[in-house]
Amino acid sequence: MNAHYNGIMTTPLFSQHYPPHSNAFAQLVSAQVSAALTEDMGSGDLTAQLIPAQQPAEATVISREAAVICGQHWFNDCFLQLDPKAVITWHVKEGESVVPNQKLCEISGHARALLSAERTALNFLQTLSATATETRRYVDAIKGLSAAILDTRKTIPGLRLAQKYAVTVGGGLNQRLALYDGILIKENHIATAGSITAALHSAFELHPHVSTQIEVENIVQLQEALQAGAKSILLDNFSLEQLREAVNINQKRAVLEASGNVSLSTVRDIAATGVDRISVGSLTKHIHAVDLSMRIKMH
């Protein structure tokens, strides 16, 4: 997915590192699913052992509420790791909006595998759908304006990359995946380096080919960052008036990103100031898992 914002072509970082249908993507999904199944099953599912080993079964999954569906790859792999011959038939596409009581998919396979994988599969699907759904709300809220919605590193431990993927499914972009693939100089880095100028010059010297962003807290710091050659600036907790002033001062010299005090009720006004990007921690932090239901029927 490519997006064009204020003359800047941006591709979600997740897609750059883990292209859809690539081995890297498949390995990521497999590793996360394996860890989650091990966490839940340990040495074995004692309750599922009550069911005959070869007993066939079918299951249906429905959504109890409106949502953007995300996480089908993880969901599928939960069943396939326990029963490679399981068949999952989806009635909705990844990223599709659904309504309450809509049938999402049907699964057929060994009953034990369906029972053992059920909770882990639903956990992935309802959590990633929650992030995609929340992201879509923010994207829709600024429709018609030129800003982009980005995530942050405020993710669920162990689900960082999966949630970053879910943000892209919802129509957002990735601020950065982790500490290893971009520099973000924040208040404490600046204090340690001595100044905004010193921190930026160190970054440019040490990692000249890496994306570098610096956080500023007022207009004076913004002006210093621009004078020091910053090409990406995070405007931390700026008021709407300050954001408009920052855009006017910047004159498109750097990419401006607003952060802090962003909600569904404020995001459109923030986007209307002319900033390029808006980062929202709640996309991955303050989520409400989508209500899903799976019902199994024995043959």
Task: Give structural notes.
By secondary structure, this protein is α/β, with parallel strands linked by helices. 40% of the residues lie in helices and 21% in strands. The protein is built from 10 helices and 14 strands. It has a 6-stranded parallel beta sheet. Helix 9 (240-250) links the parallel strand 11 (232-236) and strand 12 (255-259). The longest helix has 31 residues, at 111-141. It is elongated. It starts with a strand and ends with a strand. The model is unreliable at 1-9 (pLDDT under 50).
Structure in a nutshell:
The protein has 299 residues and is α/β, with parallel strands linked by helices. The protein has helices spanning 13-17, 23-41, 72-82, 111-141, 160-169, 187-193, 196-206, 219-227, 240-250, 267-271, and strands spanning 3-5, 8-10, 56-63, 67-68, 87-90, 97-98, 102-110, 148-150, 183-185, 212-216, 232-236, 255-259, 277-279, 292-298.
Helical amount: 25-40%
Radius of gyration: 22 Å
**What kind of sheet is the major sheet?**
6 strands, parallel
Strand content: 15-25%
- Tally the helices: what do you get? 10
Describe the strand arrangement of the main beta sheet, using strand numbers: 8-13-12-11-10-9
First and last CA, distance: 42 Å
- Poorly predicted runs are 1-9
The total count of strands amounts to 14
Q: Mean pLDDT across all residues, rounded?
A: 94
Q: Helix/strand-derived class?
A: alpha/beta
H-E string: EEHHEEHEEEHEHEHHEHEHEHEE
**Overall outline:** elongated
